[in-house]
Amino acid sequence: MQEARRQLDALFVIHASISTIIGFACMLVPHSLAMSALQTPLYGHLVHEMVRLYGALTLAQGWLVWKTRLVGDALIRKTFCQAYCLCFSLQSLSMLRAQLSSPESHSVLNWINVLVLAG
């Protein structure tokens, strides 16, 4: 049981670290990230703000996962894992639908995101 907790804590640390880095990047340099992801000169203020909002949510979830490592209640930890599984599955399905419905407006990066989120 302790080994499973240590493994989950390690996963939480990795997830929190990646979420924090991505969240800060989206908050601080939304233009650079959006331009490299979109690969188009068509870029508006709305895209800029959406990237920042996504960054705020991602940064907050990184902090939440970091703090959850300190919680001893197995049900809460299990619920976090289930919520992330659901969240990443739904994101993967949404991105897959976008890719299939409009493949010309998506890059290889979208396929990578679909696979990472589904995995």
From TrEMBL:
Keywords: Membrane, Transmembrane, Transmembrane helix. The chain crosses the membrane at residues 12-30. This is Transmembrane protein.
